[in-house]
Design brief:
Elements lengths: L4 E4 L5 H8 L2 H6 L10 H15 L3 E6 L5 E11 L4 E8 L8 H15 L5 E7 L3 H9 L3 E12 L2 E10 L6
Parallel strand pairs: 4-5
Antiparallel strand pairs: 1-2, 2-3, 3-4, 5-7, 6-7
């Protein structure tokens, strides 16, 4: 795998995000509505652009050496007063299995601690998503426990593990 970089998410990436959210694996393990409503990619990006202004959310396109889209790095919740940041990552089908998720999460984690002054950074991972749990472990996150029946997805309740990292934790 080459270098991965994060660039602010904006409408340039709407087609790539639309492809990403149409992927059954992405839909299975995220809180993205299933099926995504028409125009979801555009409105989802717009919601991140709007939240960028008040600092409550942030989104990044993950790009490879050649500028190609590899996925997303997200901060769906930023609580600056509490110093807490939720992070997430989604990797395109073509980029999976090459360490891209780990690279995205490492970059996001560094950004949350350095630029946001995060004191607690956390991930919410579907308990059935073993690959994402391995990424969290590789990036120094600790599993705190399971949040049972956290949200409704396709008429079923989903359990999710809560993972966290503190600035004092080893990477």
């Amino acid at each position: 795998m080459g270098e991965v970089r994060l660039e602010l998410l904006d409408q340039r990436w709407v087609e790539d995000v639309a492809d990403l959210v149409a992927d059954p694996q992405v839909l299975r393990f995220t809180r993205i509505p299933e099926p995504p409503p028409e125009g979801f990619a555009r409105s989802w990006i717009e919601s991140y652009e709007a939240a960028r202004i008040d600092g409550t959310r942030e989104g990044f396109a993950a790009l490879g050496d050649d500028g190609g889209f590899l996925g997303l790095g997200l901060a769906p919740q930023i609580d600056r007063a509490a110093g807490e940041v939720e992070l997430g990552y989604i990797v395109s089908r073509a980029a999976r299995g090459r360490g891209v998720a780990t690279a995205i999460l490492r970059l996001l984690t560094e950004w949350a601690f350095r630029d946001l002054g995060g004191q607690r950074v956390f991930l919410i991972i579907d308990v059935e998503n073993d690959a994402s749990a391995r990424v969290a472990e590789r990036c120094g996150y600790r599993r705190e426990g399971v949040m049972r029946s956290l949200h409704l997805k396709q008429d079923r309740r989903v359990d999710a593990a809560l993972w966290s990292r503190l600035p004092s934790d080893p990477g």
